[in-house]
Design a protein that fits this description.
About 35% of the residues are buried. Helix 2 packs parallel to helix 4, helix 2 runs parallel beside helix 6 and helix 4 runs parallel beside helix 6. With about 220 residues, this protein is an alpha+beta fold. The protein has two domains: about 110 residues, LON domain-like (Archaeosine Trna-guanine Transglycosylase, Chain: A, domain 4); about 80 residues, no CATH class. The protein starts with 20 loop residues before the first strand and ends with a helix. A five-stranded mixed β-barrel has the order 1-3-4-5-6.
């Protein structure tokens, strides 16, 4: 299991003002898509094949958003989705002979879906505002990030995996916010916890919540109470 470093703004730099984006959404059950992570997708439904064709003709970006509980009866229509989601860009695309697609998305930012907008498409379009991390330069962030790294290595030990490769990958991660997102994406199995971490913009609080979730996971793996 490797974490991939990606370009990110230094934690002390103030983010510039952001402009809402007009973008397609891809709703999925239990899928929190984090910035600075990669998400492979297989696209087979006709409406989403059309969406990908249009995205490739535009700027290759789309929003992956998790469906709210109880979506099943409305799945073929417009089921409710969470307000905080992940904006990503298609970085690899394979169109199959069947018309389906294999994709790789790279997460660019969190977004808040402001509203759904009318569109003459089978898929849904929204106006979404990109969201920046805050609080990454507080004094306690370094200690919390170090704790998360140690917890990751302890979890690997608990499942009988080598620590060396992950230790190298963790050290290559460039910012505390990126560390949170990559660890949450790779290691946390519970959808509700992943969505909670996606919705947390404050890096210090996100590290604290991630640390608690990793402690719970480690206890489950080791049988400790």
């Amino acid at each position: 299991m490797r974490f991939r470093p990606s370009s990110s703004r230094p934690s002390g730099e103030v983010a510039p003002p952001v402009t809402p984006v007009y973008v397609a959404i891809f709703p999925l059950p239990d899928q929190a898509f984090f910035p600075r992570t990669f998400l492979p997708l297989h696209i087979f439904e006709a409406r989403y094949r059309a969406m990908i064709t249009d995205c490739l003709a535009r700027d290759r970006r789309l929003v992956v958003v998790s469906l709210k509980p109880g979506y099943e009866p409305q799945y073929e229509g417009r089921p409710p989705v969470n307000a905080i989601a992940g904006l990503g860009r298609i970085v690899k695309c394979e169109r199959l002979a069947t018309g389906r697609f294999n994709l790789l998305l790279h997460g660019e930012s969190r977004v808040r879906i402001e509203r759904e907008v009318p569109a003459d498409t089978l898929y849904r379009m929204v106006l979404a505002t990109p969201l920046a991390d805050v609080g990454a330069d507080r004094p306690g962030v370094g200690r919390l990030a170090g704790r998360v790294k140690e917890q990751c290595l302890s979890i690997l030990t608990a499942v009988g995996r080598s620590r060396a490769e992950m230790a190298e990958s963790l050290e290559a991660v460039r910012s505390p916010g990126e560390l949170c997102d990559q660890v949450a994406s790779a290691m946390l199995p519970t959808p509700a916890v992943r969505q909670e971490l996606l919705e947390e913009l404050d890096v210090e609080r996100r590290l604290e919540r991630l640390g608690a979730a990793l402690d719970d996971l480690l206890r489950q793996l080791t049988g400790e109470r």
